Amino acid sequence: MAVSAPDRSSSSTELKRVIGPKLLLLFVIGDILGAGIYALTGQVAAEVGGAAWVPFIIAFAVALLTACSYLELVTKFPQAAGAALYAHKAFGIHFVTFLVAFTVMCSGITSASAASGAFASNLSLGFDLGDGAALKLGIALGFILLIAAVNMRGVTESVGLNVVLTLIELSGLLLVIFIGLFGIFGGLADFSRVIVFESPEDKGVLLAISTATSLAFFAMVGFEDSVNMAEETKDPSRIFPKVMLTGLGITAVIYVLVSIIAVALVPVGELAGNDTPLVTVVETAAPGFPISALLPFISLFAVANTALINMMMASRLLYGMSKQGVLPPFLSRVLPGRRTPWAAIVFTTVIALGLISYISIDPQGPIALLLGGTTSLLLLAVFAVVNVSVLVLRKTPVDHKHFRTPRALPVIGAIACLYLVLPWTSGRPASQYGIAMILLVIGLVLWLVTYLHRRSRGYGQAVLDTRAIQQIT
Question: Tens digits of per-residue pLDDT, 393-429?
Fold first, then answer.
C-alpha cells in the first residue's frame, strides 16, 4: 500500500500533475505484483488441487467489482486519499472513519509481516542457508528491523523507483512463464492435473474454493493504492478507468498463467506447503539451468518492495491519526533532524515483530500463509465499506464528468467481499480472525485512551473534517 504525498502547508497548494497513463499503469501493476504470488501459489494449490487457477480468476472478479467502485469514487472525488475519505463522505461518523483508517493501517502491517516470511524463505534458498525454522525466524525479524531502519531514515516513495522495482518484479514472473513454457514444450507437463479438483479434510467444493480465493485475493490487492496518486495524475477522470482496469487485467493474466504452469509441471503434493513454489517450478522445467538460481533474488525485490511500502504507509497512517487527535499524541513524535515519525515507526515495527514471532510458534501454518490471509481479510472488510459508500454517495452531485459503475456491481461487490470475510462461508482458519481482532482491539484501546484523555482535559472528541482525512491517508 502506497504512501501518499506529503502534507500540504496550505489548502491552496496543489500537487503537480506529472503522471501520465504509462507511468500510472506501471504503478498499478507494480503495486499489485508482490509477495502474494511468490509465496502463496502452493497454498492455493493445496486447497483446490490442480484447479489452482480458478481461485485467482474469482479473486480477480471480486477485485474488478471493487475496482469499479474505486473508479467512480476517485474520478468523482479526485483527491489524494482513499477508503477512509470515502467512508467519511458517505457516513460522516468519525468512529467509522477511524475504524476504516486503522484497519487499512493494520493490513499494511500484516502484509509487510507476510512479506518477511517470503523474504526469509527466498534468502535461505538463494544463499543455501538451510531450511531451519529458527534461521527463517531470525531472518524475518532482522528483515523487519532493516525495513524500520530504512523507514527511519526517511525514504520517500517515487514513481521512478516504483518503475524500476515493477520491472524487476515483472521479470521474475515472466521468467517463470517462459521457462515453464520451455518445460511444457519439452514434454515435462501433465495438463491432466490442471482440471483435477482436490480438497483437504473432505471440504466441499464451494468451501474449498472460497478458502483458496481468500488466499489468492492477497495477490490481487494493491490496485486500491493508486487512488492516492489522483492529485498527481493528468486528467484522472479520463485516465484512471482505462489504466486501472488494464492493470488488473494484465496481472490477472500473469497470475493465471503462472498457476496453470505451476500445476502442470509440479505435482500438487510438492507445491503444497512449499515456501518457494515458483523456484520449484523453474527447477522442474529446466533442471540445472543457471538462470533459475536468480529467481529467489528477483523475488527478494518483490517482497522487499511490498514490505517497505506497507510499513511506510502504516507508520504514516498512525502518525496522521495521532496528529489529528484520534490516537495518543506520543505517536506523532518525529526525529528532530530527519523529521520521520519515529514513534509510529517503532510502534508498528513492534507489532510486526510480535506477529512474526507468534506465527512462528503457531503450528497452523507459515508466516506468509496466515498473515497473507489476515491481510486479505482486513482489506475485504474495507472493500465492502467502499462498495456501500458508492451507493450512498450517488446522492452527492459533482460539477464534472466521472466514471459511473452500474448500480448492480457495487451491490454484488459488497456481497462478494462479505462472503469472503464471514467465517462460515470463507473457510478461513480461526487464527486469522484472532489476529485481526487483536490488532483492532489495540486500535480501540488507543482510541478510548485518547478519547478519555481529551475529555478529562475538556477538549471533547476529535473532529475529522475532509482535509484532516486527506492528511491522514
Answer: 988 888 888 889 999 999 999 999 999 999 888 888 8
CATH of the domain at 64: 1.20.1740.10
Domain annotation covers residue 13: no
Domain count of the chain?
Answer: 1
Three-state SS sequence of the chain = CCCCCCCCCCCCCCCCCCECHHHHHHHHHHHHCCHHHHHHHHHHHHHHECCCHHHHHHHHHHHHHHHHHHHHHHHHCCCCCCHHHHHHHHHCCHHHHHHHHHHHHHHHHHHHHHHHHHHHHHHHHHCCCCCCHHHHHHHHHHHHHHHHHHHHHCCCCCHHHHHHHHHHHHHHHHHHHHHHHHHHHCCCCCHHHHHCECCHHHCCHHHHHHHHHHHHHHHHCCHHHHHHHHHHECCHHHHHHHHHHHHHHHHHHHHHHHHHHHHHHCCHHHHCCCCCHHHHHHHHHCCCCHHHHHHHHHHHHHHHHHHHHHHHHHHHHHHHHHHCCCCCHHHHCCCCCCCCCHHHHHHHHHHHHHHHHHHHCCCCCCHHHHHHHHHHHHHHHHHHHHHHHHHHHHHCCCCCCCCCCCCHHHHHHHHHHHHCCCHHHHCCCHHHHHHHHHHHHHHHHHHHHHHHHHHHCCCCCCCCCHHHHHHHC
User: 150 is in which domain, residue-wise?
Assistant: 21-472
14 found inside a domain: no
Whether 368 is covered by a domain: the verdict is: yes
At residue 270 the predicted structure's pLDDT band, cuts being 50, 70 and 90, is confident
Task: With respect to residue 1, please indicate whether it lies within any of the assigned structural domains.
Answer: no
